[in-house]
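Example complex used in Figure S2.
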Amino acid sequence: MSYLACCTKKLKYYKPLKKKKMSVLVYLENWDGKFKKSSFELVSYAHSIAENNGGSTIAISIGEVENSELEKLAQYGASKVLTVSGETFKNLDSSAYAQAIASAAQANACSVVVLGHNNTGKGIAPRVAVKLKAGFVGGATDLPKSYDPMVIRKNVFNGKAIGYQQINSDNKVITLMQNSYKIIENATDFNSEAFDVSAESKTRVNSVNKVTDKLLLTDAEVVVSGGRGMKSADNWGPLEELAQVLGAATACSRPVSDEGWRGHEEHVGQTGKIIAPDLYIALGISGAIQHIAGVSSSKVIVAVNNDPEAPVFESADYGIVGDLRLVLPKLVEEAKAFKANN
Amino acid sequence: MSNPMKTVFHPLKFKNMKILVCISNVPDTTTKIKLSGDKKSVDMTGVQWVINPWDELALTRAMELKEKSGGKIEKVTAITVGDKICEPILRKALAVGADNAVRIDAVASDDYYVAAQMAEYVKKESFDMIFAGIESSDYNGSAVGSMLSEFLDIPSISSVSNVDFEGDSFVMKRTIDGGSETVDAALPMVAVVQKGIAIDPRIPAMRGIMMARKKPLSVEAPVDIEATSEFIEFEMPQPKPPVKMVDAENVGELFSLLHEEAKVL
Amino acid sequence: MNFEYSEEQIMIQQAARDYAQRELIKDVTERDEKAEFPTEHIKNLAELGFLGMLVGEEWDGGGMDTVSYVLAMEEISKVDASASVVMSVNNSLVCYGLEKYGTDAQREKYLKPLARGEKIGAFLLSEPEAGSDATKQRTTAVDKGDHYLINGTKNWITNANSASTYLVIAHTHPEKGHRGINAFIVEKDTPGITLGPHENKMGMRSSDTHSVMFTDVIVPKENRIGEDGFGFKFAMKTLEGGRIGIASQALGLASGALERALQYSLERKAFGTEIFNHQSLAFKLSDMAVKVENARNLCIKAAWLKDQGLPYGTASAMAKQYAADIAMEVTTEAVQIHGGYGYVKEYHVERLMREAKLTQIYEGTSEVQKIIISRSLLK
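Predicted assembly (986 residues):
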C-alpha cells in the first residue's frame, strides 16, 4: 500500500479529536508590589488549563510591580506578562480593573480568565464575566473535569456537597479557591509588555487601616488556635510560644473571643474568619460545627483535647487526648527539637 | 495632591434616596443535604426556605440606615428572582420593614441570569444604592451583586463590612488583607456586603408582620436572557478517614508524622 | 379541613423562635440560678409586640389570632418559661380580661399600655386558704359608697413585683356566696399594698412570684369590672383563656425537651453507636413525639375554637391538663436520655423538668381541669 493510502486509511479509523485551542489570562493581585504563594498557585492552575488545550498562559498584573517580581511568574508558565499601571488603577476599583482584564483577554484571544477567589477576585471576576458574556464559576476547587464542555468542581451548600458547574458560553471566567491547586514549576522565558487601557475610576479610597505587625492569619501556612479548653487567658503563653517556634499565626474559637481572652481578629469560624492553612492545630477546642466551618479547608488538622468524645476528632487528621497543661509544654519542647533538626 | 475623581463626585442631594436589597431564597442552613437519585440535582423536598443569611443582614442594615436617616432614605425595596415559592421570603422582608417587594417570575438558573433579570428591573425604576450579599448559602454563588453592577455600568464595591452615611454621602468600609479601607463611590452603586454589615438579622415585630399584609408585592415578567452555566451533577464529599491518634506520652511522634506523612512541616 | 399554618402564623412562630434561640438562651441558666427577672428581655419582647399580641389593633395590640399565640408561646417556652409566663399572664389573663369585660374608659386607661407592653399586668386570685376552691375568697372589697376598700392577702402572684396593673378578685357581699365576688383594677403603687418576699421556687425562678398584702387599699368605684357580683364569673371566664397560654407553655417545655433529647441522642455514642440507634431509646423518643403532637393538637384546637367565637372552655381544660401532664413526663424522660449530663444545669433539660411541674399546678391544677372536663361530659 502506498504511503498516502496508509495515511488515508488511518484517517478513516482514527479521527483526531479537535480540541478547541484555549488560551488563559490569569490575573495576579500584588501586595505592596509583591506576589504570594497563592499567586503562583494561580499561574500553575492557569498554565495547566492552557497546556491541556494547546493555548498560551498570559499573566496580567495591575499596579506597580518590579520586573524582578514579575519574572517569577514566568517560572510557573506565564509566557507573557501584561502590566497595567496608572493613576486610575492606584486603588482597587472593580469596574476599572475588570475593564483592564476583559480588554486584555480580548486583545490576547484568551477565552479563559482565571482569578483568585479572595476579596479582590470576588469583586472583579463577575464584572469581567459580564463584559465577556462569560459563564462564571466562583470558587473552583480543582482543574476542570472536562474541557468541552468545560465542567468545573466547586463546593456548594457551604461545603456540605460538591457541585459540578458546566459553562456553556465560549468565554469562561473562573476564580480558584485558596489552597486548591499545587505550585508546578514550568519555567519559560520572561516576556513583559505594558498594556494600555483607558478606564474611569468612580471609586475613592479615603483611608486605609492596616494591622501589619502580626503575621496575617489568612496568609499563615501554620496556625495554632486555642479554645475554651485552655481554661483562661493567662494560659496563652505556651500557645504563643508554640506558634512562634513553628512560625505560625495564632487564632481562637468564638467563646474565647467572646470572653475577651483574645481579640476578635483571631476568631476563626462561621461568623469569624475562614482560613485554609496547611496545618491547623486546635488546642482545647471542642469542634462545634460553626468553628469547623472556618477551618475545614485546611490541609491538615491536629486536635488536642482531654475529651476523647469531642467532635473535633471527627474533623481532625491527627489527635492527642490529654490534659493541655501537660501536653502543651511537651508540644513546645518537641516543636523546638523538631525545628532544630530540620 | 488633586483628586482626579473630583468631577465624578458631584455633591449629593441626599434625599428621596431609594435602596434596593437583592435577596435570594435558600434552604435553611441546618438542612441535611440529600441528592436526587440520579445525582443531577439536590433534593429539596421538605426544605424550609429562608432568606440567604448574607442578604438578610444586608436588609437589616438597609432598615437601620433608613431609620436613622431622618427621612432622607425614602424607600427600601426587596427584590428576588424566583417562582411563587419565593414569596414568603419577600413577605418576611416586608415584615422586617421593606416598603415594597418585587418578584421576577423566573427560575433562578445561574448568577448571570439572575443579575441580568434584576438589571432590567433596575433600569425601569431607579435606585441610589443597591445592596447584595456577597455569597448565597446554597450554591455559594458570589457573583450576582457585582454582575448586576456591570450590567448597569455602575460602580461596585465588594467585601463591604460596614455602610453608614456621613453628612450627605454613603461611606463604606471594605475588607482587605490585614485590615480595611474606607471607601466611597459615585452613586448609583452596588455594595456587595459581607458578615458584619449588621450584627444580627432583624426579627420582625408583630406590627411589622401585620403591616406586611398591606404592603405591595409585585410580580414582574422576566426578559428573554440565557444563562451561561448550569450545574450538571453533584456528589457528597468523601468522608474523612478516621483521625490518627498520637499518644500523649509520645508527642514527638506527631511532628514526625506531620513532617514525613502529611508533609506540612 | 386544613392542618397547615398560614404564612403569617409561620412568620410569627419564626420570630418567636429567633428571639428565644438567639437572645433568651444567652443568660437563661444564669437568671434561673440567681432568680433574676428578665427585665431587658421583657422589654424586647414588648417591643416586638409579643406582650399584647392578642389584643385588638384598636387597643394598640397586635391583633393576632390565638393559634399564632400558641405557636409563639411554644417557641419562647422551649427556652425560657419564666419569660413566657410573663407573656401568658399579660396576654391571656390581664389583657384578655380587660378587653372582653372592661369599659371603654377602663380599656383606654389600662389596656392600651398593657397591650403595648409598656406596663405589665398581674392576676390576683389565689389566697393562702383559697387555691383550687376559689369561691372561698377571704380578701374583702367593702363598698364604701364612692370607693371600695380592699383588705386581705393574695399569694403565688406571678409578676407581683414587675407589674403595675393588678386585676384583683375580692369578696364584696359574703352573704351572696360566690355571687358576691367582684373583680377590680388596682394600680400597684396604691398605698396599702405591700409585697411579701420573692418566693424561692423550684422552677420558673426568673419570674417574680410574691404574696401581696392589702391593708385598707382604696380602689375607685369605676375600677370595678362589670356588674356588681360579676367577679367570680369574670375570673372563671378569664382563666379559660389563660389555660391556653399555660397549655402552650407546657407544650413548649415538652417540645423543647424533645428537641434537646433528640439532638443529644444523635451525638452521644454508647456501645459502639449513637444512642438513637438503640431501639429502647428510639422508642422513648417516639413516645415523647406522640405526646408532644397530641398536646399541640389540643392547644391548636382550643385556640381555633376561641378564634371562631365558639365555646372553648372544655377544650382549653383538656389542652392544659394534658399538656402539663405530658410536659412532666417528657421533660423527665429527656433528663433520663441525657444521663449524667441531664442532671447538670448546662444542658438545660433539668430546668425544663423543674418548670414543667408548675404547669400541673398553677392556673388550675390538673385535678381541677379534670373536674371541668368530667362535668362537661354530662352536658
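Residues 5-11 of chain A have pLDDT under 50 and may be disordered. The first helix of chain A runs from residue 3 to 13.
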